[in-house]
Specification:
Layout (H helix, E strand, L loop, with lengths): L7 H11 L7 H4 L29 E6 L5 H15 L12 E6 L4 H9 L3 E7 H7 L8 H4 E17 L12 E3 L6 H12 L5 E3 L3 H9 L5 E6 L4 H4 L3 H4 L1 E3 L13 E5 L13 E13 L6 H20 L24 H19 L4 H17 L4
Parallel strand pairs: 1-2, 1-3, 5-6, 5-7
Antiparallel strand pairs: 3-10, 4-7, 4-8, 4-10, 9-10
């Protein structure tokens, strides 16, 4: 079934409920030229529909959150990886350009993929993507969104004053969950609700939250990002009077979250030799489910082949260490994988099999390919 853009009246209700206050961050614009401001997906409700084709038929955008966060770093490294292997034409033209689009993250990432002309992909927590299925007007999101591959785990960090010894000590106190409608704010609220801990929520960015912590206006700050978070790693527990509070991996959290830990190696000035238990959430690279045979579908097909074939490079060198824990072949229950991505894995499996078979008959190899992919198409796998 071909994906259909959400009607304006339905999406308007969703976006107003989400109230995703976002704008293209100037600091990000200095690093990359975004094809379209993420702001138009949420703040300018009258223009949320996809109006015409993308600005550049060879550019695909990845909607991310804060440019200081893991999402933007990952999208930037993907963009650089693709660019490094491009073969340009006689006038410097390229067949594929990937552009990170910085915004508010959270629900805005999902709405950006559904509405922005140049935003084909995004990186979002799986738990947040699952929650979006229950939002009014998004009943067909499983048909509109596909996933390319699961990525890394992002950890929850709770930084609190020393008198706070456990997460239950935060009951009745003021806690910052991050910018409103960000992934941290939405999932952080779910964590406290699941644990039965009532806190007074404020929604500040990290810098403002730390100022409020020092002034004694709030008791704790929750941060969702892949460890180590550079801004947190610079804090000294003895000088600041802050420390990490553990989040127990209770049965109430198992449906959406994963067990994780923060260690001395992650934060040498905040953690001693004993690690701090916490929880994390898996992120996933999602894409709009463009109709098969469309130009955007073919562009994403090319993107997948380019990324997957060069992915080992991201696990080496000076790239973000979180790439090393990514298993591209893992699945995301309840969601369909982008068919060209599935096809790429199938092709690698066939190549491995044929290399062991050691046949020199190209006709036999071609027949096996045709038979396999014909079976795959008939079985609904793309």
């Amino acid at each position: 079934m071909n994906a259909v853009r959400i009607p304006r009246n339905v999406l308007q209700a969703v976006l107003l409920m989400a109230a995703c206050m976002a704008e293209l961050i100037p600091g990000a614009a200095a690093q990359t030229s975004a094809p379209e401001s993420v702001m138009s997906a949420t703040n300018e409700v009258s223009s949320v529909e996809k109006a015409g084709p993308p600005h550049d038929p060879y550019t695909t955008g990845i909607v991310t959150g804060d440019p200081n966060g893991t999402e933007f770093a990952a999208a930037t490294e993907i963009a650089k990886l693709i660019a490094a292997h491009q073969v340009t034409g006689p006038h410097g033209e390229v067949a594929l350009r990937v552009v990170p689009m910085a915004g508010g993250g959270g629900l805005q990432n999902i709405s950006g993929v559904l509405t922005l002309a140049d935003a084909d992909m995004s990186i979002v927590p799986v738990a947040l993507l699952n929650d979006a299925r229950a939002m009014p007007g998004l009943n067909d999101i499983r048909e509109q969104i596909v996933y390319i591959a699961p990525l890394y785990v992002e950890e929850f960090h709770i930084l609190a004053h020393w008198p706070i010894e456990s997460i239950s000590d935060l009951a009745g106190k003021t806690v910052n969950l991050g910018v409103k409608n960000s992934a941290a704010a939405l999932l952080g609220a779910k964590i406290f609700a699941r644990l039965g801990i009532k806190v007074n929520v404020v929604n500040l960015d990290h810098s403002a939250a730390m100022s409020a912590m020092r002034a004694g206006d709030i008791a704790a700050d929750l941060v969702l990002s892949s460890k180590p978070v550079a801004s947190l790693a610079s804090y000294d527990s003895l000088q600041e009077g802050f420390h990490f509070v553990a989040i127990p991996y209770s049965p109430a959290l198992k449906e959406d979250f994963l067990p994780a830990a923060l260690t001395h190696d992650d934060y040498p000035y905040l953690i001693g030799q004993k690690s701090i238990n916490t929880i994390g959430v898996r992120s996933v690279l999602i894409a709009y489910n463009w109709p098969k045979g469309s130009d955007r579908h073919r562009l994403l097909d090319f993107f997948v082949r380019s990324l997957f074939s060069r992915f080992p490079e991201l696990k080496a060198g000076s790239h973000h260490r979180k790439w090393r824990e990514v298993n591209l072949t893992a699945t995301v229950p309840g969601w369909s994988r982008f068919p060209p991505a599935l096809r790429w894995f199938d092709q690698q499996e066939i190549e491995s099999f044929l290399s062991k078979w050691q046949t020199g008959a190209e006709a036999d190899r071609a027949r096996l390919y045709r038979d396999f992919f014909r079976w795959r198409e008939h079985s609904g796998g793309g």
